[in-house]
Amino acid sequence: MNQSVSSDLLPVSVIIVNYNAGELLSDCVGCVLNHVRQVIVVDNASSDASLEMLSEKNALVDHLQIIRLHRNLGYAAGCNIGLAEATQPYVLFLNPDCLLDAGSLRYMLTVLTLNEKNGMVGAKMINPDGTEQRGSRRAIPTPWRSFVYAFGLNRFAERWPRLFADFNQNGQQLPDAPIEVEAISGALMLMKREAIDDVGCWDEKYFLHCEDLDMCMRFRQKGWKIVFVPDTSIVHYQGTCSASSYLLVEWHKHRSMNVFYKKFFRHQYPGLLMWMVKAGVWFRFGVLSALHGLRRVKKGLSF
Predict the structure, then answer these.
(1) Which residues pair with 16 in a beta bridge?
(2) Going by DSSP bridges, is the β-strand pair 137-138/118-126 parallel, antiparallel, or unpaired?
(3) Residues near 199 by beta carbon (within 8 Å), at least 6 away in sequence
(4) The model's pTM
């Protein structure tokens, strides 16, 4: 007999976009399946056995929906496909390499509903070793902030915090209570459906990376608050879905950075500066590619 959806489950649709997450996908789904009313897994044409493992463990669960795509459409498109199937007033976008406990999700939902203008809530994302991950709470990486980060000028932040502050805030003291921030990690975003309807779907011009920053920008432009919840800990095995294709992931990441800067900052910065930002982004990609190639050569020579 199929498991029925209990009325005391949280009114949340969980959307998980999968791409070769392996056994972690089953673990991720298992963390939320018995606590929410709907779980939707959108698979971006995975080539591993992650879907087979998930189906074996949850063959008789009514409120788990698996959508198999015939090609990889990217993260934003996958989120939108899942969103079209969501039925609940709250939507959690969750990476398949995250492990979330029911208590944390319930508390996040409470925080989200405390204020009618709260539109999105995120949690403290931790590495497997217990340290807080970059991106859990952050400022928007404007072209200037990205320049500061790229050239290590954030080491002067203590003396000139307004000028040289790091957009990643995981190095700062953890707040004592939920606090409004400019952006949170796209690995876990709990949103009100009414806020999504007001702001719009994920921008599919991003294939991978920066789509979460884009969503945060648009939420704030529409007057919705983004809240970081410090007293929750979500384990995130970062990079699991992209571990086998480093250069391709980096190419998409740098391309998305240019899309993001052009969309939100081209009217705030002089054209020459924006050209320099674009050139800097692709120069950084070139350096990373060269270093990656050297590491592969050294690794090959070591055998």
Answers:
(1) 41
(2) unpaired
(3) 119, 215, 218, 219, 222, 224
(4) 0.86
